Fold these 2 entries.
Entry 1:
Amino acid sequence: MTKAIGPFKQLLTFSSLPLKGALQDEQLEVVENAGILLAADGNIARILPFKELEDYCAKEKILLERLEGDFVAMPGMIDAHTHICWGGTRARDYAMRVAGKPYLEIAKAGGGIWDSVQKTRAASEAELTQKVVQRANKLLQNGTTTIEVKTGYGLTVADELKMLYAIRAANEHVAADLVSTCLPAHIVPKDFDGDGMAYVEYLLQDFFPKVQAEQLSSRADIFVEESAFNHTEARKYLVGVQAMGFDITIHADQFTAGSSLLGIEFKAISVDHLEASTEKEVAALAQSDVIPVALPGASLGLGCAFTPARKLLDAGTSLAIATDWNPGSAPMGDLLTQAAVFGAFEKLSMAETLAGVTFRAAAALNLQDRGQLITGKSADIVAFPTSDYREILYYQGQLRPSMVWKKGKKC
């Protein structure tokens, strides 16, 4: 049924903003004392001055969800990079890391990605589903209405499929949308009988055809790094998944530069991390349509440099911001706090930071139907208890949404 919501003291539409390049706060469309008319399909029909909306609802006998108090509305946030399907914990890793232990020492002590692989393999599909639901609901409560979820802690055909089944099952039990991404090329598993190239061939022959046949995901990811897959192995993988029709994203330039150029070569939707990107990679990305995704949670978790967001935007790239929520390098899982802190360190305008978690993040997932509060887009809405939108980032994640709507339904 058609209904309306309001009034909002301020409403951020993100209308008419460019996908690429720097943004100034003056470019934001801030509609004062507005309301939202919803269509029966859960999309936005119109944004109207509230008095006009109130009169229209009375005349047409449309249900009006009237709000008491001052609220700022913006599109539901979009977390374009998470690993929230995992078993176990890596608190021991974190304690060793902050005490100054290097990665290799942690791995030798039984930590690292392989630790999460073993714990995820030991978990049942039902247990993983429950964990994804819990984590997705936490994100939703904090205003994130679309969540990308990667595999990558199974590293066998059966265990990677188990993760995809768990993500699919969780998607039926949460109001947020879960977007699955295949990351079987996270590392070469220690128990695989062969090298990286043989493992890539195994995935292309035995895993991805099953994903396609069961329509479990349309996205493929790979971690290109000295500790994971080299460029030769990655190129074979990317050629293979691209030929099957998968959208491509890449864990790129996290510790060493250069793999983001693979993303450009293969016309990836996004390249994620980029903490080690140099002027060469920044300039190349600016000449492409690939969307850089910054992951400040990983920088905070590892105690390393942030993605050079200011340089990327000034060069003319787009920029999405995501949590990288995972059990090892990014255990926080709080998009708003991370984005606010990241914006302060990288000197991002509020428009740039908020765009990075809304419509630019939607583009990083190749989703055209959300991320803006405009006619025809999904009515994914968050309302913050304030009269000034700048306070959303000013309180660095401590100002939480009072209300969240997904497709026009209050969560």
Note: DSSP finds 16 helices and 16 strands in the chain.
Entry 2:
Amino acid sequence: MLTCIQGETKMYETLAEILRGTVTIGLVLAGLLAILIWIKDKSTRISYLRVFVQVVFTVLIFIGLVIGPFGLPQVPPVGNAPRDVLIGGSGFLTRVPDGISIPVLACYYPSGRTVTCALWQIQAYIFPFWDPGAGFTFDVSYINTGVQRLAVVFSVIIVMSIVLGRFFCGWICPFGLYMDLMTRLRKIFKKRYLKLSDRTNTGLRQLRYIIIAVVLILSVILGSEAIFGTQLVQGTERGGYVYSYFSAPYCQVCPMRPLCVLVLTGIGSMDAEYVLSTTTGAFYEAGYYLTSLNLIILGLVTFGALAFRRFWCRICPLGALIGLFNRFPPFKWFSAIRLNKVEEKCTKCGICKRVCPPQIIEVYEEKGGDVTTSACILCLRCVEMCPYEDCLSLDLAGKPVFKSRDWLKEAD
């Protein structure tokens, strides 16, 4: 009798999953059609479409409100939202229990995630999980060595970067959506955004690579005992102070971590009482899920985003990592997605430079051909606003998929 009841319950849960998925797909398609049909202004249609896609991916993947199964008490004190139901975490990638690293800021710490942050994996597989064995939770056990897992992570990042480049940043990254919402909030109050000088902005972009280098160096120093057999910093042993509070050094300052945790506690996917009860309140630590540095930097980045469009994207180390594997040789030679410019059709009107959220100037300054840069987030605002027919285009595998239109003439 009990077996039959359990079987029926499982069947109903499966049907509920199918129904939920069908409804979600239907709503997404309806939203896409609504934007394409009812937004007549071609100078804003792509912008509305991009925001819609960002919201869909945030709800679908990063908050984990649609992809199930749900109510899995894998980490009971945190809440019953799915925590380790990760894409690629089982099946053909059983040796990578943390799942595939989709190259966007997808925080490891909150419940409800379905993809894992590539930066977390790169750090964690150096320190503290260089050797095979148990991870933070009892249900994660690493079979391969840190080198082997890092090889998988970098292989996935390289392939995805070559195929889609920083399209992830402009259309999928949830923190990118947060940046865009800050910009729209500023517009509500009719306050013009500020601009950095070209020289300052270019210099700021170099900070991305410095952050990557510092993170890798710190990870190696902290993981020296496992890697070289010599402990360079006390407390890095399993259960030690550094191990407990400073594992994955970038995560201690990343603004995405507190944002994810606060959003998920707000919607009930994490137990706020438990998450916040682990906070100590010290400047340099605030428990496992939040750190004081996290919160301070989130505040600073939010302030920066209110003043400058896509402020964080200009210094994001993960965006820089994607750019390294997309816009520099030899990876650039195989890049599938490119922003192309026809020199003969450009009049140097400067619109592309003025409308670019991260203030990319290369699209304006380059004569023609592939004008994509490592800092370009492929938001397509320049293509959308360019008033010259086919002057700018987004090419996928050599084929144009979106071109600029003479929208000024069409508006008349």
Note: Strands lie at 133-134, 141-142, 337-341, 369-370, 392-396, 399-403.
